[in-house]
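Researcher: I'm preparing a figure for a lab meeting and need a structural model of a single chain. I don't have an experimental structure, so a prediction will have to do for now. The sequence is pasted below. Please return the structure as tokens so I can convert it later.
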Amino acid sequence: MLKLKRIDNMDILSNNFDEMVEFYTQTLGLDFFLPFEPGEGWAAIDFGNLTLYLFATEHAAPVFRRTGINEQDPQGYDSIAFAVDSLDEAYAELDGKVQWVTGEKTVWEHPSGRWYQYRAFFDPDGNMIYVTEPHESGAVVGAGASAGIASGNPAAL
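Model: Understood. Here is the structure written out token by token.
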């Protein structure tokens, strides 16, 4: 029987390749997984627990920009989410460098006591990325905890 172990890598095709490489390595501060050779049309970015491969494409169709509201978006892959220790510090670092999907963070609490606060932004091609601050259990800090799944995207957590 097949036994899948972990996600190894994911790929993004981009007709805006150089800007995407700069965004992931400079704006987000991620390292290359493999040595980068400009002009080769691909880059491997270290996401910590998986590798993102960026590939240049000549196709010009834009990426569908998701809303962050699951019920309103079409089927398919939705987003990438990065865990951070402090959402406030992530905001301070990224504000002015990224286009935020929403004006404010979302707080979501599961009945088990696990809770998250998070906010989404777009990469240069319009792919949605979350920064999320996960918590094992305890009292939720901040407004919106009772908003539940309808106001957020627990799949991105």
